[in-house]
Design brief:
Layout lengths: L1 H15 L2 H27 L4 H11 L3 H8 L1 H5 L4 H17 L3 H14 L3 E4 L2 E4 L9 H20 L12 H8 L1 H21 L4 H17 L2 H16 L4 H25 L10 H6 L6 H10 L3 H15 L4 H6 L9 H20 L20 H7 L2 H46 L1
Antiparallel strand pairs: 1-2
Helix pairs in contact: 2-4, 2-6, 2-13, 6-7, 6-8, 7-8, 7-10, 8-10, 12-13, 12-18, 15-16, 15-20, 18-20, 19-20
């Protein structure tokens, strides 16, 4: 265990201080509020109860398609340009971490991004399809952000820039100093666009997805992939390392692209097919450690665990697990190693089978509920069906059963330790 802790500690340190992973994580976190906001409007627009749809149509006097379209405007203005939002946030975050001009790097990244976006034309002039701005371009946005920032920094650090006199205010000098670094970045992406046009005739998005995007989705969107990621995250947590912060920086872009694909199909009235997505990860893959506190509530008799019921129970209604992790404690507790690692995996397997067999509708992608949303509620919102809530309850029961024998072992040990302390205290008092 010590050797494993040493290895994982080194890995987590390298990942946690990696500029690019942290920039991606920061960028995706900045993107998340808009996903939640858009979800609120989409839930109302496509609420999975026909009576509700009829009710809104009756009080507004509008056909369902009309008022649903008006609510969907928020989605079009936020997640509809999700790739562009991620580009902006990651570029700024990476520029700040690299110590270069954040505004100029961000604007340079936007120009580079737009160079790779194919323009269409109609009677009214040129246009850009939102297909090339939405969440499906997140992977491309990440790559453009990193390349733009790195090239900009390389040129800037070499001192290849227009130097203004010292008397010129920084706000005026900065744009002039960025001309050459920005030019180099834009020139590189211009050449890339010409190359794509000459040899492929398609778009950078199509080329990138073929080379990297599709393989990433295949791996990250597979059952084996998500199980490995979750086990790695739990292993980090066991040794006191914030596992979610490590893996989310890498996996969130993949889950978001899969989520967006489901949302697009759902809005068109189709049936989504991506079982693994952000909603699956948040609402079903995270059911595991909660079984520990419920098991304690059911069978624990030691004084310590009785106090834990008061502290950890309420926070875990909102999926806040730190009181349980630190209070029991679960971390570095060999007794709990097995359930700590496998309980979430069992939830993943049960949920995946339920979705794959059609017992529960696949997450629609319309509702990306916050991770603090209580179980049962999140299951219903994510799937648009009461079956999603039932699935969460089933997973909860199973993980509690997994935790029960281990909690009993630990609780019995605590009872013995508490009894020994009381006896020792009593003998001391008698001696006095």
């Amino acid at each position: 265990m010590d050797k494993l802790q040493e290895i994982l500690g080194k890995v987590s340190i390298k990942l946690s201080v990696n500029l690019y992973i942290n920039a991606i994580k920061d960028g995706m976190l900045a993107y998340m509020p808009f996903a939640f906001i858009a979800s609120i409007f989409l839930i109302i627009a496509f609420f999975p109860i026909p009576a509700f749809t009829d009710f809104v149509s009756s009080i507004t006097g509008l056909e369902a398609a009309v008022w649903q379209g008006k609510l969907a405007l928020v989605n079009d203005a936020s997640l509809g340009i999700g790739g562009l939002l991620v580009l902006l946030s990651i570029s700024r975050s990476l520029a700040d971490k690299l110590g270069i001009n954040g505004i100029q790097v961000t604007m340079t990244s936007v120009v580079a991004f737009m160079l790779l976006v194919p323009f269409g034309a109609n009677d009214t002039g040129n246009f850009i399809s939102v297909t090339y701005l939405g969440a499906q371009t997140i992977f491309l946005s990440i790559v453009i952000s990193i390349i733009s920032a790195k090239v900009y920094k390389f040129i800037n650090d070499k001192g290849i820039k227009i130097k203004m006199p010292a008397a010129v205010p920084p706000a005026v000098a900065a744009p002039f100093e960025s001309i050459i670094p920005s030019f180099v970045v834009i020139f590189i992406f211009w050449l890339l666009r010409l190359t794509i046009d000459a040899f492929d005739g398609g778009s950078a998005l199509a080329v990138f997805n073929f080379i990297l995007g599709v393989p990433l989705q295949k791996v990250g969107g597979s059952l084996i992939g998500v199980v490995i990621v979750k086990m790695f995250s739990q292993l980090l947590w066991f040794f006191g390392i914030h596992g979610d912060s490590i893996v989310n920086g890498v996996m969130t872009p993949i889950f978001q692209v899969l989520q967006d694909a489901n949302k697009t199909v759902s809005m068109a009235g189709g049936t989504p097919v991506n079982i693994i997505n952000q909603s699956f990860w948040d609402s079903f893959a995270g059911i595991g450690i909660v079984g520990a506190i419920i098991a304690i509530v059911i069978i624990a008799k030691s004084k310590r665990y009785k106090e834990m019921k008061k502290i950890a129970g309420v926070p875990y209604i909102f999926n806040v697990g730190e009181p349980t992790l630190f209070g029991i404690p679960l971390m570095m507790n060999v007794i709990y190693f097995i359930p700590f690692i496998i309980s979430n995996v069992v939830s993943i397997l049960i949920s995946y089978v339920a979705f794959a067999t059609g017992l529960v509708p696949v997450c629609t992608g319309l509702a990306q509920v916050p991770w603090t949303t209580p179980l049962v509620i999140s299951g219903y919102l994510a799937t648009g069906s009461i079956a999603g809530s039932i699935l969460q309850i089933v997973c909860l029961i199973v993980v509690v059963l997994i935790w029960l024998p281990f909690v009993r072992i630990a609780d019995n040990q605590l009872i013995k330790e508490e009894a020994a302390l009381e006896n020792k205290g009593g003998s001391v008092q008698e001696t006095i």
